[in-house]
What does this fold into?
Amino acid sequence: MLRAGCRVADSLKQTPLHAFHRQQGGRMVNFAGWSMPVQYALSHLESHLHTRQHCSLFDVSHMLQTKVFGRDRVKFMESLVVGDIAELKPDQGTLSLFTNEEGGILDDLIVTNTSEQHLYVVSNAGCREKDWALMQGRAEELRATGGDVHLEVSENALLALQGPSAVQVLQTGVSDDLAKLPFMSSAVMGVFGVPGCRVTRCGYTGEDGVEISVPVGRAVELVELLLRDPQVQLAGLAARDSLRLEAGLCLYGNDIDETTTPVEAALVWTLGKRRREAMDFPGARVIVPQIKGKVKRKRVGLISTGPPIRPHMPILSPEGRPIGEVTSGCPSPCLKKNVAMGYVAGEQSRVGTVLAVEVRKKSCPALVTRMPFVPTRYYTLK
It folds into this structure.
């Protein structure tokens, strides 16, 4: 969870925008070993709602950006993830999962099959060292048997422009027609005069928007250019967390980890059909039988009124028996109710089931609810 009360030490890693955040009044906190802004002048609530109504700019440069080259790059990636990477069209991406042989999730990531003859991979900051070691280790194994694959860490900054007006704002600064860039597709273009930016239509808020991988030396310049539009406001980790929770999106380390499988986490859709049939991804012998069988626990959405629901609070059966635990929770600025996700016993996971959450020793009613809690607005071609 975001630890807003942490004191930011000098030893923390810094993004290329660190000094800029301070100049803009960003309140810096420790997030996964990085000094990151939790919020700016706008309150958490104001920033959240501004993103839903207009658009906000987030610094996500702490994420690991990796390029995978070589004729065996798809074989390499499919030896690590559950998705069908071979089926991706040029400049198309997909959310996928690194898994271990026990079926546990090592991290979630986005893999894009670029038209520049490499895969572009974005994975979580909190798993940066683990992910890099995993990929490097597998690449060395492949090369030892004659495989052709090599990795390169991108030093680019990464910006996320998110919200219903994000693409309208961006379109004024690019020559490419963004109406032809659907959700989970990507293209390299100049952005407000900054050449060589990779623009990917994706994000972590449930809104339409893009992530822009920008050469590090031009990152501050691009941010300042984007902020010239009054619709754009800087936003930090606090709004990012509540936005992704309303959208029903997992936070690695909270909602998914090495002890959860894709089936338990309700992420079966990430498993490529061909991969399921071939059972050729890490942990397939555990994961595939779970799809048609039963799992002991399942990730669910919960809505409640009353005091806020927070991570690690016990989820109770109607009789008051502990049946699971909250993994993420907060008051929803859009719904004016508490939203949460957590794991419960399989038989209690059906939408509409009335449960309870123990909040400060009191039992508060909670309803198992379909996610996302707030409808997503991803842009798809008709």
Q: What stands out?
A: The first strand starts at residue 13 and ends at 14. The mean pLDDT is 96.
